[in-house]
Amino acid sequence: MQYSKILALATLFISGVVAVPTKRACAYTCGTVCYTSSAVSAAQKAGYAQYSAGTTEDSYPHVYHDYEGFVFPVSGTYYEFPILSNGDIYDGGSPGADRVIFNTKDQLAGVITHTGASGDNFVSC
């Protein structure tokens, strides 16, 4: 009888541990905003789709000139597209502070932000 109580308690404990949601890791942090890799991929996908179609939403995506001199892991020409902190895909209006940067081969160059930068510059996330 004691064994069945221990087994029941162990099962309850294990189910409680398994049911605890895990927090997703930040692939990039822009200021205090955490972006998962899936959020970055979704913004890049939307931006590249616009680029490929030759269309824009309030001028995005557009060429990113890299005035700041970032060293990206892929070669350019680079394009910038907003990534929104609320998780939505940008479809016009205020672009917020954060951008995904990709090239014409749909390779992610990085994520940058106006948060913490001077003037209209960007800093890396």
TrEMBL record:
GO terms for molecular function: hydrolase activity; ribonuclease T1 activity; RNA binding. Transmembrane segments: none annotated. Belongs to the ribonuclease N1/T1 family. InterPro entries: N1-like, Ribonuclease/ribotoxin, RNase_U2. Its EC number is 4.6.1.24. It catalyses: [RNA] containing guanosine + H2O = an [RNA fragment]-3'-guanosine-3'-phosphate + a 5'-hydroxy-ribonucleotide-3'-[RNA fragment]. This is ribonuclease T1. Keywords: Disulfide bond, Endonuclease, Hydrolase, Lyase, Nuclease, Signal. Residues 1-19 form the signal peptide. It is an enzyme of class 4 (lyase). The keyword Lyase applies. The keyword Methyltransferase does not apply. CDD domains: fungal_RNase.
